[in-house]
Amino acid sequence: MPQASLFRQITDFANRADPYPLYEELRKTPVLHEEDGPYVISSYYDIEALLHDPRISSDATNVAAAGDDELSGPEATGLPPSFIRLDPPEHDRLRRIANSSFGPPHRPRRIENMRGELGEIVTGLIDGFGDARQIDLVDEFAYPFPVTVICRLLGVPREDEPRFRAWVDPIVAGLDPDTRTSAESERTAQEARLQLGMYLNGLVEQRAREPRDDMLSDLVNSRGPDGAMTTMEVLSTSVLLLIAGHETTVNLITNGMLTLLRHPEVLARLRNDPGLSVRIVEELLRYEPPVQIVPQRTCIADIELRGVTIPKGSRIWLMLAAGNRDPERFKDPERFDPDREDIQHLGFGSGIHSCFGAPLARLEAQIALSELARRLENPRLVEDPPPYRQNAVLRGPRHLNIAFDGLR
Amino acid sequence: MAADYMDWLRREGRIVIVGASLAGLRAAETLRAEGFAGELTLIGDEPYEPYDRPPLSKSVLLGMASPHRTELPHRLDIDAKWRLGVPATGLDLTAKRVKLADGDEVQYDRLLIATGVRARPWPKEDEARLTGVCVLRTRDDAADLYQRLKAGPRRVFVIGAGFAGSEIASACREMGIPVTVAERAGAPLVGALGGVIGAVAADLQTEHGVDLRTHVTVTSLEGDSVGRVRAVHLSDESVVEADVVVVSLGSQRNTEWLTGSGLGAGPRGIACDAGCRAFDFRGIVTDDVFVAGDVARSPHALFGYQFLSLEHWGNAVAQAETAAHNMICRGADRRPHLWMPAFWSSMFGVNIKSVGVPPMGDQLMITQGSPAERRFVGVYGYQGRVIAAVSFDNTRWLEFYARQIERGAPFPVEYPTVDRRPENRQPVAADFPDPSLPTHGPTVTLSGYSPADQQLVFHPARH
Ligand SMILES: Cc1cc2nc3c(=O)[nH]c(=O)nc-3n(C[C@H](O)[C@H](O)[C@H](O)COP(=O)(O)OP(=O)(O)OC[C@H]3O[C@@H](n4cnc5c(N)ncnc54)[C@H](O)[C@@H]3O)c2cc1C
């Protein structure tokens, strides 16, 4: 039987639990192009360079034009693309408006001020394990925690979670390259996005009348130097923030706990020194990044890379997780080592699209992991590897069963 | 033999660093980090531990940071002898001794000179002594200027619209203080970025309420009966009343103490090779005297082997690290200092950053964004290649352009980019003033022979 192409193997669910040997193979051909597939880029320096390359577009329409599916311009979706799928200047404008209610310079302490609240949510969830001696970390902790946080931050009622989850799941599935090939799942995703937008519209209208101290109110009432977002822009931005605000953090926390359980000496250190969580989370973002691939890029000019000319109009996949373990960049890259001298990574991407929520994700993961380490007595993995989620882009365990002797 | 000496030097040699600021401290840290176990002495004429200067013209003036609180963080314990508050006054190259103002002498096996630059004072001494006439280079200068701004002056007058002068004007406006800026050239920042970008900076200033006067020079400062400055006279015969005058006319290199030493030191700095080894006055490279930071002048392969003086924070750090490394290793292990010049500034709410050497550029092309929106990237071309780039509120793209400079990519830029507007397709003259006119601000000084039109392939070091 002929060996499936490297590219197919990576998207193949069978390899989800440990794609790293495939990534290593991939780096031997740092600019890989198979048949009519995308150009797959896997070395740290190349990815870093392309993330800062103004000849690379994230615009949904360019990307769709380069793809082989009859995707989905903005009209087809009903909701305009969010800033993650736009190029400057629109990208910059929308991201700046969104940021003015999230981070510096306008709200420099918004995230840091949530520290106490995040701690309380974590404590509540861990207390909720009660007398159990085994939990599924995903369902009982790693999912509800960031969902609760993003709901509070945006101002979305937490009890609506079952409703919006029904829309979030197909949207996230639509990002998976395996299901993506089917026009059917694409349509489902776009439909779900519209539904989620309509749901949020109810909240947005209400915040326009009675603003509160939450991001939905800020987005709908923003009147900075960049002007205001249109209602549709508010909706696609909040859809983006709601989804990106938790789907990735679940994986960061779950991958994190999995990695710590596989490295008990680090877990033990963390138990005694919560401050170590800062380095641990950075190293995790390198070692097991929650977003493994950036598949939504096209080049708008011919680009020469390592002697290969990537023709204008080609689709490009940036393999963040492969770059993160590139021996050209990192000493001993396959080792999980929070004591590394310069922990750097592509875990949050880089360039103008670098993760908007990074400060929140970092803080959430730091608090979550240090509290789990502190409170779970003698925690251990029930199965290794755990079952994974389908998605190759947003990669992480679907369940993580952990046994322990009690709570501290 | 040589190897033995190097082992001995690393173990018990004496290294002296003159200039206890950014470059001095970073060099000291690098020496220790790379295993130098001998005696380390830092000599500084300021009474303070090394501190950071960029905040002095930014957050410090706004009261957001105390001038006494900008100490540079120590990255490791350097276990050094500190001789602070005492200037070095001379150097005996043969006897390997540094002379100090207090009469002491310090013996070295290796010497690093990192004495930086100082503010160019107002040339008429009696006028410069008027109360309210300031410069801004040191922590004391910043503390003094901050007090004066806080007192609510009726008007501040800034002489010179380089980066520092423009940043000071920006701080004044942010505090609601009326400010007049006088500039000999046609616009702010022209020396560093040329007339086209200068015009953008000029609009930025006037929009923020700066009373900007260009194509004028200050002819005299007028004091009142008790010796306070009260008015500024300009070459166009106008008179502006002001109670604070900030002289921001660029800098002078701190090399006088080396007069007669035989080192290749002068008003343009201390020339050194790409490995940071100082030249003597005959152009012969020394083996035990090294230079780093603002005071250094070294050839750069990417820019036609021009001798560049870079008054850039990042250069001081990188050059100090290279110098320190080279001071304690064998010839074959030495590294060249081939740092990509990069400079940042912030004023009137805009973040300005440049890479490469803009003043070498003869043409300029806006490749992304739009100057009208104060958000753009401009690329400088020199004889058909990309030589520099500048961004206003668009920092994240600069890495790309830095790589284009390293590769000697062709100019004008032909390919499309995201955020390229139709109105910006044409290269125009970058419009730098005649290089014989004085320019100022922490920027780049081009000096030395430039073999024109080098075609070269540059392989930057990756760490
Ligand atoms: C107000 C201000 C704002 C700035 N903003 C920016 C910015 O935004 N971006 C940027 O890239 N750069 C900026 N710079 C430039 C940056 O600070 C310098 O490039 C950097 O400080 C250079 O470091 P250095 O160690 O070479 O020299 P310095 O920091 O000048 O240090 C030299 C030291 O040597 C001492 N010295 C001099 N002569 C003697 C002697 N004979 N004996 C003993 N000691 C002596 C000096 O007093 C001084 O302490 C700014 C500078 C200033 C003043």
TrEMBL record, chain A:
CDD domains: CYP164-like. The keyword Endoplasmic reticulum does not apply. InterPro entries: Cyt_P450, Cyt_P450_B, Cyt_P450_CS, Cyt_P450_sf. The keyword tRNA processing does not apply. Pfam families: p450 (PF00067). Keywords: Heme, Iron, Metal-binding, Monooxygenase, Oxidoreductase. It comes from the Bacteria. Belongs to the cytochrome P450 family. This is Cytochrome P450.
From TrEMBL, chain B:
Pfam families: Pyr_redox_2 (PF07992), Reductase_C (PF14759). Residues 416-449 are annotated as: Disordered. Residues 14-320 form the FAD/NAD(P)-binding domain. Transmembrane segments: none annotated. It comes from the Bacteria. Residues 343-411 form the Reductase C-terminal domain. Its cofactor is FAD. PANTHER family: APOPTOSIS-INDUCING FACTOR 1, RIESKE DOMAIN-CONTAINING PROTEIN-RELATED. This is FAD/NAD(P)-binding oxidoreductase. It comes from Streptomyces camelliae. The lineage of its organism: Bacteria, Bacillati, Actinomycetota, Actinomycetes, Kitasatosporales.
